[in-house]
Description:
Blueprint: H1 13-16, H2 24-36, H3 41-53, H4 55-73, H5 81-97
Helix pairs in contact: 2-4
Amino acid sequence: MRPCFQANLIISEDRASLDATMDCKKILEELNLYIDGDLDRDLCERLEAHLKDCERCQIVLDTTKKTIQFYRDQAPLELPADVSERLHSVLRARWKRQ
Length: 98
């Protein structure tokens, strides 16, 4: 399991009001910050304590991590030339309007 990190501490009013136990809904709300290592230490430790005892949340965490890794490992797709040209044309037109 990923250790708790203190880089980029993010604490909101909602997080500050969490009690000592965490439920599955709160786990899901914090999961992205946990995976990125952006939770404060206390919240991270409570999340990990919940994960130790909750198989469902552990499955969600593992699946999310595997999905992220899968997409990171994929090579960028090459767009067909005509699609690329149309996309660039639309983006240039929108950029000029701004």
